[in-house]
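Thread: Newbie trying to understand structure tokens

Hi all, I'm a second-year student working on a class project, and my supervisor (Dr. K.) asked me to get a predicted structure for one chain before our next meeting. I've only ever worked with sequences, so writing a 3D structure as a token string is new to me. If someone could post the tokens and maybe explain what I'm looking at, I'd be very grateful. Here's the chain:
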Amino acid sequence: MNNANRLIPPPVYKSLSLPHRKFCQRFILDYRLWFLSFCFLIVSAENAHAYLDPGTGNALIYVVISLIGAVVYAAKNLFYKILRKKKDSSFERGNGKTLVIFSEGKNYWGTFKPVIEALIARKQPFAYYSMDVHDPALTIENDLMEAKYIGDGTMAFAKMNNLEADILLSTTPNIGTENYPIKKSGKVRSLIHIWHSFGDYTYAWYHHGSLDHYDEVLTAGEYMNPQIRLIEQKRGLKEKKLVPVGVPYLDELAKEREGMNADTDGKTILIAPSWGTKGCLTVYGIDFVRDLAKAGFNVIIRPHPQSLKVEKEKFDGFKRELSEFSNVVWDEEVNGSVSMAKSDLMISDTSSVRMDFFALYKRPVITLEMPVSDTSSYEYEDLKDLLAQSTMETDIGDKVSKEDIGQIVERVKAALSSTAARDFDALTAKYAVNFGHAGEAVADYLISELNK
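---
Reply by user tm_fold:
Sure, no problem. This is what the structure looks like when written as tokens:
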């Protein structure tokens, strides 16, 4: 739609803060409702026991429409004057090829923030479309970035399904998959996936067909390549371009870590379960926690945020049962960095937080083996034989089965004593290349592709 025909032109709308944008949307909605209500009264005059002769009615409608048009026109001019009308963004003017970043919402801000900052620093125009009105990226004011909230349902799907761009970057799996609402637009030259977690099992727990329609994948490291290639071979898919760039959200976490006191007491264990049926406390119970507490370890239990919403009764029970131990504490803060910084070792299940802890704090992780149920709808089904050869869990620490959980104290002591022999830097470089600078690596690659 031409800018001149919009009630609030994009340059003005973009310059507004989020609260002001909401006010403008409300203003437009109210004005439309007023107008429709007036029209309803006019056309239902007979039922309302009111009378307007045709000539007077037509004239009145004409006057009202003219007045509304004048008000809207004046409002647009007022917005321009008050906010100092800007030129179109570099993206809108057209600056060579186009780059669009698509986000499902604020949960992915950590992944996109370093990329956005790097693109702006390199003066690369781009658009950022989000399905979340609370996405922090929408508050960024920069001529190089066209930030838009595109709705959170049918409206957003329609926008994405007809998108025109040279490059579309997204963390969203399953774009283009049958029955998934977002299709791959025929006007997108290259659809690129970027991960929002990492490790050997990240791809495995995506739904079947998750990356089948992507053209390129920006991986955390080359160790991910065999899994992607195996899926392509099994399904007869064209090979994607695989580019190791790293994990952008670690950039921000690494900066946060630098400003923290990372001293430990040598005996603090952080237990970080997933939520639901795949959580280690749900599967293993809390006897192993008791064993650690009795052995003199300080234990921090940090439930998944979702557990505090949907499993509160269960975790309240765990708290009561462990209340006799003064060396067992619970962390329910939004940010888990403080607990991670003071912990010498983490115990978890299949949660990706294991990799964050290992990479950021260079400390060992004990993975509790989890039963695998129905995997028919996940990529795991085609990857399980390859995953059986994975050494990731022993690379970052140790792996304990349910049969061996009674040995947890000995296994923890062994993992802590072998820390000096483990090359954390080399392993981090393997599982998350460009550690601390992945956002820059992503931006550099995207720009190089646009310049081809």
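A couple of things are worth pointing out once you decode it. The CA atoms of residues 290 and 322 lie 7 Å apart. The first strand starts at residue 99 and ends at 103. Feel free to ask follow-ups in this thread.
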